[in-house]
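Hi L., both proteins are below.
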Amino acid sequence: MIFYENLFESNKKFYDEFNKKFQQVLSSGWFILGNSVETFQKEFAAYHNSKHCIGVASGLDALTLSLLAAKIPEGSEVIVPSNTYIATILSILHAKMKPVFVEPDISSYNIDPYLIEEKISDKTKAIMVVHLYGKSCQMDYIKQLCKKYNLILIEDCAQSHGAKFKDQLTGTFGEFGAFSFYPTKNLGALGDAGAVITNSDNYSEHLKKLRNYGSAKKYYNEIIGFNSRLDELQAAFLSVKLKYLDEINLHKRKLAKIYLDNLKDDFIKPIVHSDYYDVYHIFNVRHPQRDKLKEYLLKNEIQTDIHYPVSPHKQKALEGIIEGDYPISEEIHNTILSLPCSYGHSEDDIYRVVEVMNKF
């Protein structure tokens, strides 16, 4: 069986270093907001040439706390792509704001920058872009819109660790770059974890308070805060893997190229353009008979996944919250299939997937 993702295989190269870090954290006797978190924050900020990194408990919290740190008024509208993962939308709702959907570009799966302006109103205070599947959004025009309308730009980088647009890393275009380190990410922890990068001293200080009960000094609470701290042990593990992030991305790009060069044209493959450095957190294809294709591959001992099977506006949780029709989003969700493409897969694995798929 070729599994969609085998986290043991993807992480086994790092296990000796993980064990050393575990012993260091254990023997330190300090498990919350200690040296490991401080070290990783400095390393992750340096990787992005950003001034600050604030470790938090998850990618969802990274987005929610970014909205709150920006001090956007409750009830404000936040523009977001109509085909993102539910966490992006939940962050806006948790911050007591209103998500306004914009359809994606069918070729890139990212928010269509040229459909954004028509959704901007007097209530719009922010744009939350999502660099989906490991491909950056087209940031030039989006930046222009933010400047024109004085909007906060928050980047959901949960799937784009190391991805670039015109040689600039995702997470560094806006006021906030929000990251998830969920175990399957290109930079994945061994549990839930997240972080925000920012160049603003004020935003950084506010985020640090928000993640820690609203406190900058123990037992002195200045604002209404949360318990959303990056775990000391996860930070230690992330410091190990950050050293290998570029190598992980290169490996996934090599596997993606096998798909791109060898899959027959019956499958709609991700677009490739020189402006984008894609890191293929997810390598997907689209096909009108997606479900049959998935079943066929499983019968041939190839496991796949769907990111994501239900368009957000069709989710029961968002009934009565999201209005309107989003046919492009639905087309993507109804036809997309994620193929094996992880650090734990070999080139032979991918050639095998290609061989089987081309017989479909």
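That was the first. Here is the second:
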Amino acid sequence: MKYATKRERAELATVCNDSVAYLYQLAGKHRHASPQMATRIEQISQRVADRSGGRLEPVPRVSLVRYPEIFVGLQGWE
């Protein structure tokens, strides 16, 4: 969120059907996303990061949920 432009933040919020303020709460660890929301944010942030030319990094879904072990055994879990 820190390095994203206003447009990039708004795009991510729009695609996730949420607000930029909610994304800031997730980024600041004041809230935790549902597994579905975390997966959606990971996918969209990957696309935004790809278009940023290396300026941004994708947001891993495990960093957004309270219990990241729920993703064990799923594709992309490390």
